[in-house]
Design goal:
CATH architecture of the largest domain: Up-down Bundle
Largest sheet: 4 strands, mixed
Mean pLDDT: 97
Low-confidence stretches: none
Order of helices and strands: EHEHEEHHHHHHH
Domain GST N-terminal: 4-84
Number of strands: 4
InterPro entries: Glutathione-S-Trfase_C_sf (IPR036282), Glutathione_S-Trfase_N (IPR004045), Thioredoxin-like_sf (IPR036249)
Radius of gyration: 17 Å
GO molecular function, one term: maleylacetoacetate isomerase activity
Shape: globular
Distance between the termini: 34 Å
Organism: Arboricoccus pini
Protein name: Glutathione S-transferase
CATH topology of the largest domain: Glutathione S-transferase Yfyf (Class Pi), Chain A, domain 2
Number of domains: 2
Length: 213
Amino acid sequence: MPELELVIGSKNWSSWSLRPWLLLRELHIPFKETLIPLRRPDTAAMIAPRSPSGWVPVLHVDGQPVWDSLSIAEFIAELDQRAWPEARMARAHARSISAEMHSGFGTLRKLMPMAFAERIQPDAETLAAVAPNVARIDAIWTDCRARYAGDGPFLFGRFSAADAMWAPVVSRFTTYGVVLSPPAEAYRDMMMALPGMLAWAEAARAELEAGHA
């Protein structure tokens, strides 16, 4: 196993950092965590020497960088095949919904940014604006649970990179109290109770209490 260092941003805010962090954690792959606080005057200067793109997360593999959360997930899958479902078409399905999350849902991202440890009541205008995004996400989760429920409680039965990719949305729906269908709500609540998500939440709360987020 190569030496892994994951460079991430503030845990209350950095949705993209949560994805590879949770995937590594749930697969029990050892890694060193380096956190760079976001939204500070020196944030960009601290990230620049660590990340070719100037963004976090970035995974250093024996000192070589791999950046972007989806690219990092694919690299992790090369280390541990459990990162994606075993069956070919389930694996293709998981990659499809992960890519859709990675590239889409701009309205939700903009109007409901990740604030992991906070609880925020959105106004009616915001809820109306994000409703199409919420409906699509609810449909994705409900469809996955209907197809793969016999294999376990996650989107594809057992935990996979797809769950890690959707983890920031799970947190957003919790932060903003978004109403979901029963299957989607059950999935959200199960994900929020994962040991990794609880650990991330504890760190995010500590950032808030220290005035760092």
